[in-house]
Queue: 2 jobs
Job 1
Amino acid sequence: MKIYMSVDMEGITGLVDYTHVSSELHNYERSRRIMTEEADAIITSLFKNGAEEIIVNDSHSKMNNLLVELLHPDTQLITGDVKPYSMMQGLDASFDGVIFAGYHARASMPGVLTHSMIFGVRNMYINDQAIGELGFNAYVAGYYGVPVLMVAGDDQAAIEASQLIENVTTVAVKTAISRSAAKTLTPAKAKLILAEVASEALIKRSHIKPLVPPECPVLRIEFANYGQAEWANLMPGTELIEGTTMVKFEAKDILQAYQAMLVMTELAMHTTFS
């Protein structure tokens, strides 16, 4: 059995604000250790319960957060930036299942540190389906026919996952009080629960179908201000919808839509506010 695992940071146990997830700030080093130990608890459980190969993709910010020396020795880690497929780099049809750990809810929704790729995105859509990182990444997995077996993060990420993916196993390691406060488990308790639920997710994998993306999807991204939309619209093939901050791109498939999203959001970050 071959498992793919994408690990973000905002949904990790005990992490609630930007000081935990920004590499230059004081809480980051302890946060990345918690992140690594949490990921390893899941990985170790997967190996114990039948996984023969596990590829883990570090999926937060510059994507070099996980401490490779603390991971199970049989783990293969994808680390660093730039990656052509970002949070889903390395996935293909050879995998039996996908696990999302440390995930958060989408922009404009309640939950701890909610956003969609950058803080300048208000909403993101594939056709008429509102999605965030979780949904977009699940669609990429579905393109390859691979189901998302388990999503771990805060309670709002768990709700979002359950609404998108029928029968998916979810784990809420913290409950959002606000966007920067939560009632959280301790890392020790969370690791025990995550290990147990990961084994259950493998058992249930035959009951979960891939989230199949639409053919020729239309991507729309609503930005926080017009300047961000202008920057995103510099990408060839995009259209800035008149009277809005929404930029549209008609893609040939979900992979092209995903890369278009990456380019548009990177361009939008060039916007300044002075």
Job 2
Amino acid sequence: MITFKTNLGDIKIKLDFDNAPVTAKNFQQYAENSFYDGTIFHRVIKGFMAQGGGFASGMEEKTTREPIKNEANNGLSNKRGTLAMARTQDPHSASAQFFINLVDNDFLDFKNESTQGWGYCVFAEVVEGMDIVDKMTVVETGRFGFHDDVPKEEIVIESTIVE
């Protein structure tokens, strides 16, 4: 269990080591190393998802470890309240950034092992604090440099507790 203590409230997350062992272990290592402390949810799109894990306050990008293998072919679906790894166009480029699905986003699920079909690996779910995640969607967002949908008032992960 991992708890993000944010400036909006606590979000408790249960990792799925059975279906996404590499991804869950990767996320837990970042959490244990306090990597997420002081990071912000830098992309929030109402009716879609809230993304974090890669930027400190002021949109300062953090240095991550090497990318991990995409485990999106694990049978899990991008349903409301699940966490999935964010990545670039390269299916196997996820490192520290993640997103919380605000609604069922089945179109992000694994379809096949092509660049377009790999999907986004679900590796955890919010077990407490989905109301806090929903609060994120009412903040005003805008553009910051090259980034869209950035909350105008930062949503900060102040500390991380790994149980």
